[in-house]
Amino acid sequence: MATNTSQTIRCGICYSDVKRNAKIYQDGVRFGVVCSKCHDNIPKDDLELMANMFTAYGGYFGKLKSANFSLYEMLKELISEFNINSEEVPVDKLNIEMMHRALLHGVTPQEFIRGLEIILEE
Questions:
Q1: Is the Cβ–Cβ distance between 53 and 100 less than 8 Å?
Q2: Could you give the CA distance from residue 60 to residue 89 in angstroms, rounded to a whole number?
Q3: How far is the C-alpha of 108 from the C-alpha of 115, rounded, in Å?
Q4: Is 92:44 a contact under the CB 8 Å cutoff?
Q5: CA 20 to 30 Å from 3, out of 14, 73, 106, 119?
Q6: What is the mean pLDDT of residues 54-65?
Q7: DSSP character string of 101-118
Q8: Beta-carbon count within 10 A of 122 CB
Q9: What is the rounded distance in angstroms from the CA atom of residue 64 to the CA atom of residue 59?
Q10: What is the pLDDT of residue 8?
Q11: Between the CA of residue 49 and those of 26, 43, 57, 70, what are the distances in Å?
Q12: pTM of the prediction?
C-alpha cells in the first residue's frame, strides 16, 4: 500500500512553510531548520534562545500576533497573576514567562529588552 509521505517542512521559529531556501542553524549539538527570513533577520544567539523557548514552552514566533499587544499590559498581568497567590514574585520565572509571551506575540528578544528598558525608565 502506497502512502503519501510528503510533509511540509516548517520553520522552527515562525512555523512558516519552508518550500525552498531553507537554512540550517546549529544550537549546540542540535541542528534546526529555519526559513531564510528568520535566518537573515534574527541574530544567531536570538535564534538559539527562541528555539529553546519554543521547545520548552511550546508555540512559535508570532503565533498570537496582535496589533493591540502591549509589553506594559503583559507585565502588569503577569505580576497580578503572581500576586494572586500572595507570594513574592520570582524574578527569573517572571522573566522567562514574559519573554515567552512576547515571542508568541511576534516581539523579538531585542524589541522585548528595549521595551522593558522604556518601561523601567518611566
A1: yes
A2: 26
A3: 10
A4: no
A5: 14
A6: 92
A7: HHHHTT--HHHHHHHHHH
A8: 5
A9: 9
A10: 79
A11: 12, 10, 12, 21
A12: 0.77
